[in-house]
Amino acid sequence: MRNIVLVTSEVIDDANLARLSAVASVCSSRKLDERSLLKILPNVDALVVFFWPGFLTSENLARMKRLRFIQSVLVGVNHFPYHDLRAGIVIASNAGAYSLEVGEHAWALLLAAAKKVVADSKRLADGAISFAEFSGEARDIVVLKGKTLGIIGYGGIGATVAGYARAFGMNVLAYGRNKRRIRGVEYLRGSKGLASLLKQSDAILLSVPLNRSTQHLIGKRQLAIMKKHTILVNVARGDLVDQEALYGHLTANPRFTYATDVFWAKSGRESLETDYKFQALPNFIGTPHMSGPTGIVSGTPATSAVDNVLRFFTGKRPKNLVDRSDYLEAV
After folding, report:
1. Longest dimension (CA), the chain
2. What letters, b where the CB count within 10 A reaches 16 and e where it falls short, cover 279-317?
3. pTM for this entry
4. Residue 28, helix vs strand vs coil
5. What are the Cα distances from residue 204, in Å, to 225, 248, 310, 328?
6. Architecture of 4-97+296-326 per CATH?
7. Residue 192 CA to chain centroid, in angstroms?
8. Which one, 44, 48, 244, 283, has the greatest CB density within 10 A?
9. Does domain 99-291 have CATH number 3.30.70.270?
């Protein structure tokens, strides 16, 4: 019997569906009625998912005895129902597929914060019409050359932003759990390494996955040891940062800036509705998670995800394999 791949996202375009068809029978959940979908589930060998689909309940997953591989179109896989996925199913993220687009967006957020672009644009829109009204603000503009950028999570996005930082004459620190040597980057590990990065950095990028060990990685204690003028950029997941602690820190430290493209989860899904009025703060910059969709438009994530499914079905080791132990207790 031929392998069956069930695709649950319209992000996978026709060209990539055709590539999958060379190694398996491809079905789209969006083109099947409920009865047909339930009938096919026990015969599915692989899933390609974006957000976890609602029809894949614990009951339906239990019926999928042939399921061997799950490929995410997203980088983040913290939303998968790991307790319902039996041992032996191989799970892969799509790490690296959004590096260019998200990296550029992260750098845009950093520059906007450093150069006070949003605050000054708002003041102009509110009616400030004299150059004299802005003259005192020059002291708050950050010149990046010679400053230090700390990157928490040095994957594809981190490496992209590090390249921009070096081009601007910045020093680069990176933090992660695996021992690495990276040219032009000082790499730190462990709790002492994280504390050192937080203390030294003038700007910090969060580009690490959200899992059991990274939820609220940045809380009250971590914020307290950062410099008062730090720019904290988040393009990963909102829940890496403790929301209450961040709001308190922003209100108490007007020179500290939080620039983010991601927001906190409500009822298991990211939401623009926050528990605190961040948008009213002059040292908060937010965009509505636009960096990821920018990557999707490029087509790279779909191609990368399908490449990995093809690796699996042709006997090659897939990339970006997920360690379940990172997620089984969590978020």
Report:
1. 76
2. eeeebbbbbebebbeebbeeebbbbbbbbbbbbbbeeee
3. 0.91
4. strand
5. 13, 18, 37, 28
6. 3-Layer(aba) Sandwich (3.40)
7. 24
8. 48
9. no
What's the CA gap between 329 and 83, in Å, rounded?
A: 9
The two structure tokens encoding residue 46: 């692989």
Q: How far is CA 194 from CA 17, 155, 157, 187, 275, in A?
A: 43, 16, 19, 10, 27
Phi, psi for residue 263 in degrees, rounded to 5:
-130, 175
In this structure, what are the phi and psi dihedrals at residue 172, rounded to the nearest 5 degrees? -125, 125
CATH 3.40.50.720 segments of the chain? 4-97+296-326, 99-291
| Phi, psi (degrees; rounded to nearest 5) at 294 | -60, -40
Query: Contacts from 193-197 at CB under 8 Å and sequence distance 24+?
Result: 194/152, 194/222, 195/225, 197/150, 197/152, 197/173
**Which position has the token pair 């978020």?**
331
**Per-residue pLDDT for the chain (331 aa), expressed as one digit of tens each?**
799 999 999 999 999 999 999 999 999 998 999 999 999 999 999 999 999 999 999 999 999 999 999 999 999 999 999 999 999 999 999 999 999 999 999 999 999 999 999 988 888 898 887 777 676 677 789 999 999 999 999 999 999 999 999 999 999 999 988 777 788 899 999 999 999 999 999 999 999 999 999 999 999 999 999 999 999 999 999 999 999 999 999 999 999 999 999 999 998 889 999 999 999 999 999 999 999 888 899 999 999 999 999 999 999 999 999 999 989 864 4
Q: How far is CA 31 from CA 13, 67, 69, 221, 261, in A?
A: 14, 20, 21, 50, 32
In sequence order, what are the beta bridge partners of 174?
151, 187
Angle (CA) 19 25 28, round 5°? 85
3-state SS class at 297: helix
User: What is the spatial distance between Cα 31 and Cα 21, in angstroms, rounded to a whole number?
Assistant: 16
Task: Judge contact between 198 and 174, C-beta under 8 A.
Answer: no
